[in-house]
Amino acid sequence: xxxxxxxxxxxxLNKVGVGGSLQLVMSGAxxxxxxxxxxxxxxxxxxxxxxxxxxTYPFIRFLEPRLSPDLNVFExxxxxxxxxxxxxxxxxxxxxxxSAWVTIVRKKLPSNAELREEVLxxxxxxxxxxxGKKYDIIIVDGRKRVKCACYAxxxxxxxxxxxxxxxxxxxxxxxxxxxxxxxxxRLDFIGMTPIVGIETCTSVFYRDQNCLGI
Length: 214
Known about the structure:
Strand order of the largest sheet: 3-2-1-4-5-7-6
Order of helices and strands: HHHHHEHEHEHEHEHEE
Number of helices: 10
Low-confidence stretches: 2-6
CATH architecture of the largest domain: 3-Layer(aba) Sandwich
CATH class of the largest domain: Alpha Beta
Strand content: 15-25%
Shape: globular
Distance between the termini: 52 Å
């Protein structure tokens, strides 16, 4: 009886042109990804409300199974992605310029995550050098992305990769050109992201024998 009622309801909704939209909300891929939850909360979270990076969904799905607990990560910009990486890698260091945001994010970070505050300028760009070590993954997802990407490339380990978010933006082209000239290849992941309904691109730059097995 219940199945018959549901079937009749869907038939009526489809006739008036809203059945497809409701089905998308109730059982579509965006619901499975948690997009509607992220949109309503205005936070980058999955369907269970857990933090995820504000990358394209295709790249998140590609990246997650390739992370391992022996990796060291550096991140320009911080947020839910910092928490997400901390749960999957050995250590993550992030740099952030916004004092109010630093206060919010720090409260949520575990012991294997460090968040540094730097004013925008050379100290922000060069924050990747502060620890005197190299990183397996460097994420460029904050301010001054061209300068950060170009500077950070020298602080990747031999197996290191660099991730540039929103890479479709024309003003980031100099960073892409610089990394290409340094011998990096590029893999683009185009698609939707949490929170907003636009298409963007997350790109990963890599060399042979990289930590993601590309």
